[in-house]
Design goal:
eight-stranded mixed sheet, alpha/beta, globular, 43% helix
């Protein structure tokens, strides 16, 4: 009842597919990947940010949650996850499976673009799926520009919900995305890019790291764009378990919205935990879930929670300094869930790596760029994937 009442007063948000169209720019004329990236960085930095008035980060959080409440609830249960009919109005997308790492098969939907067009993989946030509305809309926008678009479910999300292995904080999901991108690049002979949102952004950056580590940055020469990404996985997990580490909401309404969001997140976590129980001791927080559920599923990884969380961080010198794939990270200063410190740490670590671009926006909340300034978001997507695509 309270959720229903809250959604009655929630702001009505922008459908990105109904926003005024933005033209895709010509591919960069530069042959060298680094020069193409530099051109994209210059243009990304110049895109004006003109948010609509009257919405704060918490209004956006409530509006997004209410707009997609059916899918968000369905995505927690293996028999309904990744199955809501949000693609019904976009029949160009068909169900597909692609290989991941370690024998994992990823599921999702794909559209077929123009001959010779690049592929863009679109990746969802924590506890969401390829059928989440924001993913569907991003995928459709990219499709209209002529890209081949592949919206994928991550481990234990969507059609993979309830199947082993569990989510691995992006470490193995990054490997999955790199393997999938390699298969697509080899099959199609075109560039591949990744658009990752929130947790999907962390996984996308990990994929760029895997490509760089393997000496195959050309696989992801289409670039990696991460929006609102928790690149310091350790800080992200700690903040979920201890909300006092999150920015303090300014008023009662904002405190209620944040509290309800965190309660929902905790309920989703408990569903995942119960699937692996019973345990001989309480398992009720994210850090214990990692220790008692995630680590036993990945015995080759470090056996200590702290060590694993540290290894999962994208915002560390070992990862950021080695990126040889164009990686752009965009984050809002008022993000109430993933602190802007994730971006600032990444920016500091990447200041000497010309393949890394960061942009801090003054507003946008968590994943709320489309709601505040859809034109700016579309220009960022068009500039990034348009300039980096093959000529």
């Amino acid at each position: 009842m309270l959720t229903w009442l809250a959604c009655l007063v929630a702001p009505k948000l922008q459908d990105l597919t109904e926003a005024p169209a933005v033209d895709l720019p010509e591919p960069s004329p530069h042959a060298e990947l680094l020069e193409r990236a530099r051109q994209a960085w210059t243009e990304l930095a110049a895109i004006p940010w003109q948010p609509r008035a009257g919405l704060d980060a918490y209004d956006i959080m409530l509006g997004v949650a209410c707009r997609d409440i059916v899918t968000r609830e369905a995505d927690q249960h293996p028999d309904t996850a990744g199955r809501t009919p949000n693609y019904a109005r976009f029949p160009a997308f068909q169900e597909v499976s692609v290989p991941g790492a370690d024998g994992v098969t990823l599921t999702g939907r794909r559209s077929t673009g123009a001959p010779g067009a690049p592929v863009v993989i679109v990746v969802h946030g924590l506890y969401d799926s390829h059928t989440s509305l924001y993913i569907v809309e991003l995928a459709e926008v990219l499709r209209r520009w002529g890209f081949h678009v592949l919206a994928l479910d991550l481990r234990d999300h969507g059609r993979l919900r309830g199947r082993p292995p569990p989510s691995a904080l992006g470490v193995h999901e990054g490997r999955d995305l790199f393997v999938a991108a390699t298969a697509l690049s080899e099959a199609e002979g075109v560039s591949v890019g990744i658009l990752g949102v929130s947790f999907g952004g962390q996984c996308a950056v990990r994929a760029a790291y895997e490509a760089s580590l393997a000496g195959r940055p050309e696989v992801l020469r289409g670039g990696v764009l991460a929006l609102s990404a928790p690149l310091d996985a350790q800080a992200g997990v700690v903040a979920i378990d201890d909300p006092s580490r999150l920015p303090r909401p300014p008023g009662l309404k904002q405190r209620l919205i944040l509290r309800n969001f965190l309660k929902t997140l905790h309920r989703h976590l408990l569903l995942h935990i119960r699937e692996h129980g019973p345990f001989g001791h309480p398992v009720e927080d994210f850090e214990t879930y990692i220790r008692d559920v995630v680590l036993p599923a990945y015995p080759k990884d470090p056996a200590l929670v702290g060590a694993y969380l540290g290894a999962a961080r994208s915002a560390q010198p070992e990862v950021i300094s080695r990126l040889a794939v164009p990686v752009a990270v965009i984050h809002a200063a008022d993000d109430p869930i993933v602190s802007i410190q994730h971006l600032r740490l990444t920016a500091a670590l990447g200041k000497d790596n010309p393949f890394v671009f960061t942009r801090e926006l003054p507003s946008g909340g968590h994943m709320g760029f489309a709601e505040l300034d859809p034109r700016a978001l579309l220009l960022m997507l068009a500039t990034f994937f348009g300039r980096l695509r093959d000529g």
